[in-house]
Amino acid sequence: EVQLMESGGGLVQPGGSLRLSCAASGFTLSDHKMDWVRHAPGTGLEWVGRSRDKGNSYSTEYAASAKGRFTISRDDSKNSLFLQMNSLKTEDTAVYYCARADNSGFNNYWGQGTLVTVSS
Amino acid sequence: DIQMTQSPSTLSASVGDRVTITCRASQSISSWLAWHQQKPGKAPKLLIYKASSLQSGVPSRFSGSGSGTEFTLTISSLQPDDFAAYYCQQYDSYPLTFGQGTRLEIK
Predict the structure, then answer these.
(1) How many CB atoms lie within 10 A of CB A52?
(2) CB B56 within 8 Å of CB B102
(3) Which residue of B has its CA nearest to A62?
(4) A-interface mutation test, from B54, B96, B103, most A Cβ less than 10 A away
């Protein structure tokens, strides 16, 4: 059974940093594209970025809002995905989900999410 | 970036009703469209991919159609468990984008 479990959320001040983790089980992480998607209060879902699979050299794509501040990485030996978030802004406050992507690109499995609150 | 526009934003309906949600893309995305359901405080759940393919385990009362720039999600007979938010997602090109969501409420 595919399972994704995010951790690392919490309260951080504007300008601060936070590293989210996503522990994957039930499949081999290196074989799959993996995304981070967020859901801010009162808004809809927003795609944050993607790490492609090993066959595509783990290359990454980012939303404009994340580019230059957020970095997606992975440790396949631990079957884990990470989101390093720097220079955080209040508008980054959201529940952050990791999601597995099908080869075609849509998200077919989602974690339960971890809440990030950016506030002074 | 491809903009995805859903309508309506909120839909009030009763158990047993047939409902349709529309999603329009700002440019052609062929059939590279998915629909997700999200309940409050829960993770999204994939319902439909490639515009009309039903994800395994999803009830057959859910169906999707469309291609190019106009897509629909139809629930043939609403059940109590279906009252939730629904999002379309294009995966034709980066950045991936979602519609703003449709909240399906009990009338």
Answers:
(1) 16
(2) no
(3) B95
(4) B96
